[in-house]
Amino acid sequence: MSTEISKIGKYMYRPAEYLPYDHESPRVADSVAQMILAADAKFCVEHVGSTAVPGCCGKGVVDLILLYPVGRLVEAHEILDDLGFQQQSGRESLPENRPLRVATVEYLGRDYRVHVHVLEDGCAEASDIVKFRDLLRSNVGLRRAYEMQKRVILSRGICKNTQYSQAKREFIRTALAAAAF
Predict the structure, then answer these.
(1) Local structure of 133: helix, strand or coil
(2) DSSP calls for 66-125
């Protein structure tokens, strides 16, 4: 079995669920990031979300941010499309000026879903996502509260990924405001 990802595969949708932390997720993120950066090293890729926080339970989706320089959104689209990432589909898809690309990759014989959020370098949304990741990494109590919030959301029957993400927004906003960077 290869420890490198050589192919970006078709995305496999699954409803939101609560999964234990997977210690291979950072390696998956790094491998996918290296594929993207090999296409153009002027971009920046950040591993974010629960899989970027050691010990944090979550959906098990490897979330990345592809930060593109001002004026290079089209190039970012092309890089991801050429690698085999797919546009997010469905009625609640993000707009193409703030795209999300998705894929499934195989790593050590296991499938991993990957979401690549395409954001302009320096934008507030990207900054907030990275700050929240760093808060979770440095504050075990916040991480546990976030995990509890996820379980509560799922217990209410919210398992469609877009609704699940929306349901977490207030928790994230509150945590960022309390941290007062």
Answers:
(1) helix
(2) EEE-TT-HHHHHHHHHHHT-EE--STTPPPTTS-EEEEEEEETTEEEEEEEEEEETT-HH
Length of the chain: 181
Q: How far apart are the first and last CA of the chain?
A: 43
Q: pTM higher than 0.85, yes or no?
A: yes
Identify the pLDDT of residue 8. 92
Give the number of other CB atoms < 10 A from CB of residue 95. Answer: 7
Report the C-alpha gap between 167 and 99 in whole angstroms.
Answer: 20
Count of C-beta atoms within a 10 Å radius of residue 90: 9
Question: Alpha-carbon distance 37 to 43, whole Å?
Answer: 7
Any idea where the domains of the chain sit in the sequence? 25-173
Single-letter amino acid, residue 31: S
Mean pLDDT calculated for residue range 21-50: 96
**What is the spatial distance between Cα 176 and Cα 139, in angstroms, rounded to a whole number?**
12
Where is 132: in which H helix or E strand?
helix 124-138
Mean pLDDT to the nearest integer, 46-66: 97
25-173 has which fold?
Answer: Beta Polymerase; domain 2 (3.30.460)
